[in-house]
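User: Here's a protein and a ligand (shikimate-3-phosphate). What would the complex look like?
Assistant: Let me lay out the input and then the predicted complex.
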Amino acid sequence: MSHGPATPMTAHAAGPLTGEAHVPGDKSISHRALILGAMAVGETKVKGLLEGQDVLDTAAAMRAFGAQVEKRDGTWHVHGVGVGGLMEPEDVIDCGNSGTGVRLLMGAAATHGFAVTYTGDASLRSRPMARVTDPLALFGARAFGRSGGRLPMTVVGASDPVPVRYTTPVASAQIKSAVLLAGLNAPGETVVIEREATRDHSERMLAGFGAEIDVADSPEGRTVTLVGRPELRPQTIAVPRDPSSAAFPVCAALIVPGSDVLVPNIGLNPTRAGLFETLREMGADLTYESPREEGGEPVADLRARFSPDMKGVEVPPERAASMIDEYPILSVVAANASGTTVMRGVAELRVKESDRIDAMATGLCACGVEVRDGADWWEVDGRGIGGVEGGATVATHLDHRIAMSFLICGMASKNPVTVDDAGAIATSFPIFGELMGGLGAALISEA
Ligand code: S3P
């Protein structure tokens, strides 16, 4: 995706937010549905796919690898080419803003005997790729990128791959998933060990497609064993709605006076639900209604009501993986609570779509909030409900979650908050403005 001119947007203080917020499909599950659908034999049907730019870029990539991917009658149809059947793309694969897209694709293609060149937008070109190409080298793939292991990068896949046993050096579902996807076309057992559990959508979906995959806890950590060269059977997948997108209307409702918002059908996979646990510890009025299971994932309707008495907490570092994308919006809630919120063990936030600790600290300080930070920690001093001054224009650095977090911040601040560019929101939550407006938010596009 090429990024057009910047589109500033301003959030003004809003009256109560009320009603239902139907957020889009889960981004992580959407990427995986397209990639695994393309590696199955026959037609996979996907309902509720996130049609954000990140996922559309992965859909285009799967076409370039030889799969048929199209939307008909509201359902996405992926006609797969089978494990080992991906074809050499004719052109560079442009993954836009998506770290998940590029890292999972690098894995899937790494055990095919052809070269692929990957690139992305300025944000993605600044992010580290060696964390994925290092384990892919163990299969026999070779990577040639810019200095620091950055895109654009060509990965020459292994024509005679060997299976791999790999312990991930950082808690990352992207690294784990890249190794598992590469392992699909390697003979024998590929094993990934993670010291801390990360989102397990790849494991669940691989099992659903019929792969032989085992997950066990051992003293070394969570051990995932995949038997290579399975025949993946096409599936019908209903993508649950994204808890990471639900976080925005939920947190907005907690801090805007008088609000009461229902966010139906949210995936509550325990490897993703850390934010909601933290909010409840802070004293948020957040309830799970009608908990149930859908398509192998736990799901519930979330109800969030204005919560004037939230208190700062210390977020346990071992919870970080289950809420890694939610720290930016948590810091906005923390600014509207009383006392200090402490977040440790979060060095990974520095290598997301932006350095998220730096982006949030800079913007919150400009809004009158005191923030302290170090390499892998930060803390936010709460100013209580209505205590954030706002009145700033903040830089979003092509990062959708930074943009949405500061727009929510503006809804509860004394003065409006402007983001310099709301364009990146379309990567994960293209209906954000419309949905928040429908609840009663006052968002004004300055473009
Ligand atoms: C994702 C994993 C996480 C997360 C990203 C989506 C995934 O990244 O931040 O938004 O779908 O596997 P890391 O694996 O780098 O932690």
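Summary: Residues 28, 100, 172-174, 177, 199, 324-325, 348 surround shikimate-3-phosphate (CB under 6 Å).
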